[in-house]
Amino acid sequence: MTTETYTLITGASSGFGKSLALECASRKMNLILVALPGPELKELADSIRMRYGVKAMAVEKDLSTEEGCYSLHSEVIKQNLRVNILINNAGVGSTFYFYEGGADFFEKQVKLNVLATTLLTRLFLPLLEHHHQSYILNVSSLSCFFHLPRKSVYGSTKTYIYYLSRTLKKELRPHGVSVSVICPGGMNTNAVVTQVNQSGTWFARHSAMEPDVVAAIAISGMLSKKEVIIPGKLNKLYKMLDYVVPSSVKDMVQQYQMKKLKRSDVL
Ligand SMILES: NC(=O)c1ccc[n+]([C@@H]2O[C@H](COP(=O)([O-])OP(=O)(O)OC[C@H]3O[C@@H](n4cnc5c(N)ncnc54)[C@H](OP(=O)(O)O)[C@@H]3O)[C@@H](O)[C@H]2O)c1
After folding, report:
1. CB of 208 closer than 6 A to ligand 1?
2. For ligand 1, is residue 184 a contact (CB within 6 Å)?
3. What pLDDT score was predicted for residue 261?
4. How high is the pLDDT of residue 262?
5. pLDDT, tens digit, for every residue of 195-214?
6. In this predicted model, what pLDDT tens digit does every residue of 5-16 receive, in sequence order?
7. Which of 59, 97, 230, 267 has the fewest Cβ atoms nearer than 10 Å?
8. Is the CB of 155 under 6 A from ligand 1?
9. Does any ligand 1 atom lie closer than 6 A to the CB of residue 221?
10. How far apart are CA 110 and CA 120, in angstroms?
11. Are 72 and 120 in contact (CB under 8 A)?
């Protein structure tokens, strides 16, 4: 039986997931990379194998469906791959008002961000428990700490991930499974998000980070068994300010920003 271990990363074909894959490969981890069908995933696996000399396989699955999650698990079991690190990164973001989003979009967002993370964590738990020490890294968002207009469903999914991770950290410690959650602020992962970051508030423009930098912080934090990872000084400061600024002042700022947004929607 093979003694090689694997790190499984969901949403690995682009954005933050790709940065996590490159960071793990540079640390000589073998990889199982998962994303929707498309050439980018296979190309990434090929280039990682060549550049880092590690094993890297591409598994195409739609994780917004329950079948996708179950069939990923069956494939890993069938190939007898020993997963000792699970990184639940796949997620879909959004920045619009609740009434602007369709029911079908929200259904997909909740299924990918919430259900897939829950199912995969449960399904892969027996494999993780096989090892003396194993790790789960869940990707939440800084938005999970705030109640931001235009982030209603997205922020709620990330609050779920945060709660789940912190609870599992306690439950799974005796089983040798360390659980970490990362809460990044804005990252320039793709053209849409970069545009949102660049055209946003002073904070959004100045706090946005490059995904490669965040990935290095994420993997170091996970391996040192950090419970909550918040990358970037400005993001840490923002979260701290939330504790000290009275809710009435925060409400006023949010109302002002919403009015400003409504005016610019009309323009
Ligand atoms: N970007 C930010 O500012 C930011 C901030 C905080 C947290 N986050 C979180 O970080 C994570 C990654 O975000 P990102 O900005 O890197 O997103 P992204 O650029 O849109 O990349 C998402 C990745 O997930 C994959 N994916 C999408 N739908 C999938 C599905 N149904 N099944 C399997 N894979 C799927 C995509 O694969 P394909 O392209 O092949 O479809 C892609 O590899 C998300 O959980 C997000 O919420 C992002």
Report:
1. no
2. yes
3. 66
4. 63
5. 988 888 888 899 999 999 99
6. 999 999 999 999
7. 267
8. no
9. no
10. 14
11. yes
Domain boundaries, the chain: 5-266
Q: Are 167 and 118 in contact (CB under 8 A)?
A: no
Element (H, E) at 195: helix 191-198
Report CA-CA distances (Å) from 182 to 42, 179, 227.
26, 10, 8
* Ligand 1 atom closest to 190 (CA): 19
What value does the CA radius of gyration of the chain take, rounded to a whole number of Å? 19
CATH topology of domain 5-266: Rossmann fold (3.40.50)
CA gap 120, 75 in Å, rounded: 13
| Spans of the chain below 70 pLDDT | 1-2, 261-267
- Residue 43's identity, in one-letter code, is E
Buried b (16+ CB within 10 A) or exposed e, 179-206: bbbbbbbbbbbeeebeebbeebeeeeee
Distance 15 CA to ligand 1 centre (A): 6
